[in-house]
From TrEMBL:
It comes from Tamilnaduibacter salinus. GO terms for biological process: carbohydrate metabolic process. It comes from the Bacteria. PROSITE patterns: NODB. GO terms for molecular function: hydrolase activity, acting on carbon-nitrogen (but not peptide) bonds. Signal peptide: none annotated. InterPro entries: DUF3473, Glyco_hydro/deAcase_b/a-brl, NODB_dom, PuuE_HpPgdA-like, XrtA_polysacc_deacetyl. Residues 27-284 form the NodB homology domain. This is Polysaccharide deacetylase family protein (PEP-CTERM system associated).
Length: 284
């Protein structure tokens, strides 16, 4: 096992809420879809308990509203609860007022359920980009201390290429201070490659993910790994979407849990707040 401690994060949302399936499922359909996030999240909780591993669960407000007991189970198991917004809409498609209202609503809901402060945030589909940098000001104004929404890559849906690759303290446009834990990338000749988890973990061969994440640790830095509960659920309903969306969402679902178990055995993991404390970024 590597000696550097990394951050393990779970984005608690259901399969029908992801951007890749939005072309087939509207938000109006959500309440009628087969609900699978509780069972899948409970399975992840058992897996992490089996490996004595703590993580950060970025919980969608919509899910917390529907399943407050699930949020309590996550909290009671000793994991960090952070906000994933409320409705899983892309930030740059929202107005600042809508974003503020949803962010405040989700934070308040999670804090009411757990009785503990919620200080971390992750945007749906990493949609804090140069176009929506204003969201960082709102996060600071609403009492968040740290964020993990910036992906320093080029992508058709997200990304802020050229931004720092490692955890750091940033200054927002209005001058607020916020700690950012960007999604992990691998620097190769001529390209910055996303390797933080999720679809990339399912797309790349396992050996490449292990090698790339190990290289990050060998450079002396922690990485942040993310996964969704639906990614360990190969039996989820299938939808007729574009070839690209189908590939992004369904690729290697049947291999993901096995790979996750290998990764947890190979690397040292904990919650985001623990890693940021180790790096003394949360101390003022």
């Amino acid at each position: 096992m590597e000696t550097i401690t990394n951050a393990l994060t779970i984005d608690v949302e259901d399969y029908f809420q992801v951007a890749a399936l939005a072309e087939a499922i509207s938000r109006d359909d959500w309440s009628s879809m087969e609900y699978r996030v509780e069972r899948n999240t409970d399975h992840l909780l058992s897996l992490l308990d089996e490996h004595n591993t703590r993580g950060t669960f970025f919980t969608l407000g919509w899910v917390a509203d529907k399943s407050p007991d699930l949020v309590r189970r996550i909290h009671r198991a000793g994991h960090e609860i952070a906000s994933h917004g409320y409705s899983h809409q892309l930030v740059y498609n929202q107005t600042p007022d809508t974003f503020r209202e949803e962010t405040r609503r989700s934070k308040g809901l999670l804090e009411e359920i757990t009785g503990a402060p919620v200080t971390g945030y992750r945007a749906a589909s990493y949609s804090i980009t140069n176009e929506s940098r204003w969201a960082l000001d709102i996060l600071a104004e609403e009492g968040f201390v740290w964020d993990s929404s910036i992906f320093p890559v080029r992508h058709d849906r997200y990304g802020m290429p050229g931004t720092p690759r490692w955890p750091h303290r940033l200054e927002t446009d209005k001058g607020y201070s916020l700690v950012e834990f960007p999604l992990t990338t691998l620097k190769l000749p001529g390209v910055t490659l996303p390797i933080a988890g999720g679809g990339y973990f399912r797309l790349f061969p396992y050996w490449f993910s292990q090698w790339g994440l190990g290289r990050v640790n060998r450079e002396g830095e922690p990485f942040i790994f993310y996964l969704h509960p639906w990614e360990i659920d190969p039996g989820q309903p299938r939808f007729d979407v574009s070839a690209l969306s189908r590939f992004r969402h369904y690729n290697n679902l049947d291999k993901c849990e096995y790979r996750l178990r290998r990764l947890i055995k190979r690397f040292r993991f904990t919650a985001v707040e623990d890693v940021l404390n180790e790096k003394q970024l949360l101390t003022t």
